[in-house]
Amino acid sequence: MTTASTATRPAHPAPEGEVRVPYDGLLGFVTGVLRAHGLPEHRARTAAEALCHGDLTGFTTHGVTNLTRLYLPLLADGRCDPAAEPVHLTDTGPAVLVDARRALGLWSAAEAMDLAVERARTHGIGMVSVRGGTHFGCAGHHALRAVDHGMIGLATANCGRQRLAPPPGSAARMLGTNPLALAAPAGEHPPFTLDMSTTVVPTGRIRAAARAGEPVPEGWLADADGAPVTDPGAYDRGEAHLRWLGGTPENGAYKGYGLGLLVEVLSALLPGAGIGPHHDTSDEPDDDVGHFLLAVAPGRLRPETGFLGAAGDLFGALLDCPPLSAADAPVAYPGWWEQRRTRHRIAHGVPLAAGLHRELADLAGELALPFPTAEPYEAPEQYDQPARAEQEGATA
């Protein structure tokens, strides 16, 4: 598939279904939109890379679909400051407490991980705790920034004071989806990247199904009595809540709930960010989001070649594991398919829903920005299948 050229507006209406646009054009467009809303060039580019990561990897609920639905409203409402300059409140060397001052989380979390990497080079470990943040997109994108430097990265975020899921056995919602991601080098293989919400699915999956007019599988949502709900519209009507990973208490809901609390401790309790189970109320419960970024430099603890060799052996053994059937080959690990998909889409174009493409093209017209022309989306390549973790509901 050849990539398309870039034009101010599409030369003709985008075809129905899905279309494909060149990655560089999409990235440049998102950067331009954020620049038009007051972000400095370098931070707009960093934020655009974080947002487009969702579309490259297949986690489309956290991709450019959120540009007009989430991030531009944050900027327009003044809840996110495009000119924010985060402040270091405490600095012990390997650990830093940062007030993001309502910065766009897409770039402020990325810069926080870069700071953690810098400290890990000196101390072997670097930790940056952030309060006053906003939604940071795919947690895996930020964790992978550490892998770019040969390190292990951990990224978590709470949801401010949002209350989306009740503790098992409770009638009151208390915590958000509370995503976490861990990324690590895998030797000569694609990095291991676990990127997941601690609820069965994030809210984006529910709303995407509602927009498409499709039911959701049993196990994603439950009503006040714990009965399964398959109507995604019930969530925003207040008639259903998200379930924790594990689903029911008998099947391990306390594990998902416990992981949600783990994220709340690291991301909110530690930096002093907004806490879900709090008696105070807020007009904007998803403001004052907390982030936790950790980088570990294995080469400061043991010879780096030994670590990378062992990592290659570990993940290579998983790839060599015999599949149950040809359809299951290869037996991969979290991050393997996403890295292959990313390479393919950078080279051959990024698929977008035709409706989303038209929406972004309209925005480009309003802002007089170049926008990539779409080509028909042909039969899916192997790497264009939806992210496996997304299919299973384990996205941030």
Output the keywords.
396 residues, alpha+beta, Hypothetical Oxidoreductase Yiak, Chain: A, domain 1, seven-stranded mixed sheet, three-stranded antiparallel sheet, 15 strands, disordered N terminus, oxidoreductase, Malate/L-lactate_DH-like, Mal/L-sulfo/L-lacto_DH-like_sf, Mal/L-sulf/L-lact_DH-like_ah
What percent of residues are in strands?
A: 15-25%
Return the CATH topology of the domain at 6-79 and 343-391.
Hypothetical Oxidoreductase Yiak, Chain: A, domain 1
Q: What's the helix count?
A: 12
Order of helices and strands: EEHHHEEHEHEEEHEEHEHEHHEHEEH
Please state the CA-atom Rg, rounded to the nearest Å: 21 Å
Q: What share of the residues lie within helices?
A: 25-40%
* Average pLDDT number: 90
Could you list the spans in which at least 5 consecutive residues all have pLDDT below 50?
Answer: 1-15, 389-396
Alpha-beta classification = alpha+beta
Number of beta strands: 15
For the largest beta-sheet, the strand count, sense and barrel status come to:
7 strands, mixed
CATH architectural arrangement of the domain at 6-79 and 343-391: Orthogonal Bundle
How would you describe what is shown here?
Belongs to the LDH2/MDH2 oxidoreductase family. With 396 residues, the chain is α+β, with helices and mostly antiparallel strands. Helix content is 37%, strand content 17%. It has a domain at 6-79 and 343-391: Hypothetical Oxidoreductase Yiak, Chain: A, domain 1 (Orthogonal Bundle), CATH 1.10.1530.10. The strands form four sheets. The chain has a seven-stranded mixed sheet. The protein has a three-stranded antiparallel sheet with strand order 13-2-15. Strands 10-9-11 form a three-stranded antiparallel sheet, with no helix packed on it. Strand 9 and strand 10 (228-229) form a beta hairpin. It is globular. The chain starts with 5 loop residues before the first strand and ends in a 5-residue tail after the last helix. Residues 1-15 and 389-396 have low confidence and may be disordered.
